[in-house]
Amino acid sequence: MSVVMLFIAREDSDSASFHEDETAALTALIQYVDKHWTDAKLPDVARDFDAANRVAIWFKATGALYVIGEASIADETP
Questions:
Q1: Gap between the Cα atoms of 18 and 69, Å rounded
Q2: pTM for the complete prediction?
Q3: Of 4, 12, 47, 54, which residue is 20 to 30 A from 27 by alpha carbon distance?
Q4: Which of 63, 54, 69 is nearest to 17 (CA)?
Q5: Which domain of life is it from (predicted)?
Q6: What pLDDT was estimated at residue 3?
Q7: What is the rounded CA–CA span in Å between residue 20 and residue 30?
Q8: By three-state DSSP, how is residue 31 classified?
Q9: In angstroms, rounded to a whole number, what is the distance separating the alpha carbons of residues 71 and 22?
Q10: Do residues 55 and 30 lie in contact, with contact meaning Cβ atoms separated by under 8 Å?
Q11: What 8-state DSSP symbol labels residue 28?
């Protein structure tokens, strides 16, 4: 089974999730950033930016990294 994986690495924690397609993974990335916005200690006015800018600003401020890529999950059932 082929899925899209979102992996977020932060100094204090990591997060991984699997999605049907890249659009779903990007949506999850935006939701993650919005949920953890206060961690970056950024002004609330920056939340008014479009999603791509919010993600870029948040990752730059936190030093976190993210990867979105295709992944395969093997079915181990006999």
A1: 10
A2: 0.83
A3: 12
A4: 69
A5: Bacteria
A6: 94
A7: 16
A8: helix
A9: 11
A10: yes
A11: H
CB distance 6 to 66 below 8 Å: yes
Tokens of 38: 């206060």
Three-state DSSP state, 7: strand
Sign of CA dihedral 10, 15, 21, 24: negative
Q: Give 73's contacts (C-beta < 8 A, 6+ positions apart).
A: 1, 2, 3, 18
pLDDT tens per residue, range 49-62: 899 999 999 999 99
* Dihedral angle of Cα 16, 22, 23, 28, to the nearest 10 degrees: 10
Which residue, chain included where needed, has tokens 């082929």?
Answer: 2
Q: What is the separation, in whole angstroms, between the first and last Cα of the chain?
A: 15
How many other C-beta atoms lie within 10 A of the C-beta of residue 65? 11
Give me the residues of the chain with pLDDT under 50, please: none
Which amino acid is it at 11? E
